[in-house]
Every structure is written in C-alpha cells, then in structure tokens.
Amino acid sequence: MTDSPVSPAPTAIPVLPYLPRDPQSPRSKIGVVGCGGISHYHLQAYKAAGYDVVALADINREAAELRRQEFFPAAKVFTDHRELLKLDTLDVVDVTTHPEIRVPIIEDALRAGKHVLSQKPFVLDLDVGERLADLADKQNLRLAVNQNGRWAPHFSYIREAVHAGLIGDVVGVHCGVHWDHGWVRGTAFEKLRDLILYDFAIHWFDFLATIMGDNRAGRVVASATCSTTQDITTPLLAQAMIEYPHAQSSLVFDGHVPHGSWDRVLVSGSRGVIRSAGVNLENQQLEIITDAGTISPRLEGTWFPDGFHGTMGELLCAIEENREPSHSARNNLRSLELCFAAVESSQNHQPVVPGTVRKLP
Fold first, then answer.
1. I need a surface site. Which of 1, 9, 15, 288 has the fewest CB within 10 A?
2. Mean pLDDT for all residues in the chain
C-alpha cells in the first residue's frame, strides 16, 4: 500500500499594504468644491481620518451649510469656488462636481497653487485630461483622481497580492456584478446614456488597469442593453471583453437584479488564483489558491467610506513625499482609455483599440 500524496501546508497570510495611508506631517488644509450627494462620503471619510477641512463651496449655499453642520462646523462657506481659492492657508482642493463643469474649477485651483483631487470619472476628453496633467506638472502640483474603488478592501488586497507576485503572471481578470442600480431613478444619473459602462464601470476598468500595470490592452469589445422590465431608459445591462497580448478580461454588469445581488472577482495567474465573492461590494470573502494551499485573509474596512479616505490619504502622502500619487490624473487616463473604448464599441458594435477614442462617445 502506497502513501497518499500530501499537499503542501498553506502558506501564512501575507501582510500587504492594502489599507489607506495617512501622512506623517501636520495636517494639510482641505477645501471641498461641490456639496452634493457624493460629498457626504468624502467628508465622512475625512472627519473619521482626522483631516482638516477648512472651507466648503457650492452654488447652493444651503447644501454647503448642511455639510458644514454635519461634519466640519468651523469650515468657511462660499457660493463661488474662486473665493474659496483665495484662502492662503488652503493646500488641497477636492472637486466633487459633475465632470461637465469640473474642468474650469480644476484649472482655477491649479493656477491658484492648490493640489487637487478630482471626482471620478475624471474627464470627458482624454486630451483635456492630458492638458490638466501638464498644467499640474508646470505648477509643480499634484493632481489625483478620486478612484475610491482602488481602496475597496478586496480590490486593494487583490492588487497588492498581484503586485507582490503571489500568483505569478496574470492571464485572466474576470469580474461580475449583479445588483439593482434603480437608485438612479429620478436623479441626474438616470439621464446618462452610458450610465453603467461609464459612470459605474469606470471603477472596474480602473481596477483592471491597476492589475495589468504596463501590460496594455489590444482591443475592447462591449455591449449594453435594457432589460425587459426596467422602468428607466438608460441601459442597465452591459459587458466588456478586453484582450491583451497574453491575457484576457471579462467585465459583466447586470444592473437590474432586484433580488439576490452577487459580486465576484477572479484573477488567474501562472502560479495561482485570487478570488473574491459576496452578496455585495461591502461583504467579500477572499481566497488565494496556490500550490502551497489556500489562504483566506480577513479584510478590514469597507469601500464606503474607506475608499474616500484612501484617495485623499494617498494624495496627502504623495505631497508629503514629493512624488506622483498612484492615482494621478495621468495614471487614470489609462483607465479612461478602456472605458471610452468600451462605450464606443457598445454603440458601433465593433472592436475598439484603447486610446483611439479620445472623447466620451
């Protein structure tokens, strides 16, 4: 009788830098331009992190006053962002407005000598994004994008595990999101023709871009459609296939699933796989499987609001360390290349090479 083969013992769970970081030096002074719905999560995260928000601006003074009352009672309130930018003590401006009005605000902030965190999606035109990045360089300032999904615990841990070489060379990245996006009903988001592939899926295009690093995609094939029972006009079902020279990716978005939501990620490599799944984006069970066995890291934090802590924290650390932030504007243009290509492909039903579509179709 021969002995049964014994599998190697599972490796120890690696300690990876997936959580938000804070700067070491005294707190920078932050101003927020735009006090709409998303600003709640920005300010909630900044307050929890101990960041110093000294000014708020919105054309609707009541909105700014509400955010001041909720989070930073000592902050000054303005209805004109240009008045906020006159504050000499201000170091960083967080611009949370919609993209169609954001560019001149970012330009004003950079010309006023302020570092900037821009809400996502960054721009509607890649050439405009490059121009803003060039302006930041000229002013010796940091311009970053609030891709808060980068610090969603499961996305962040997977990225750091891949970069640490735990599964070897990446050969596949496959994500599926199945949920109800009907919350946009009656809001400005309902009017976005490419709501899912642009405003929502940018987080997954960005995740893919950070996983693949310098490995550039060859082409994108995508589609978008409405379900038979959805009651808003913008397509809630979308998918994209992204081809690489030696790898592939599939991103599937079922945005009209009223019951039984599910979210999954699988990154396959030459020496193992990483997979994460759960009933939503906040509750994920992650596993890393290699020849050494299976490990299941217990993740800390949640996407909302910790992802917003991560974006501002990385910008503040980059300023302190005199380096480019990992979520810089120029870096984020790689993600938008994938996004714009997917939107174009979904409309013309043809493969699209990323970077050839310069404006959001």
1. 1
2. 95
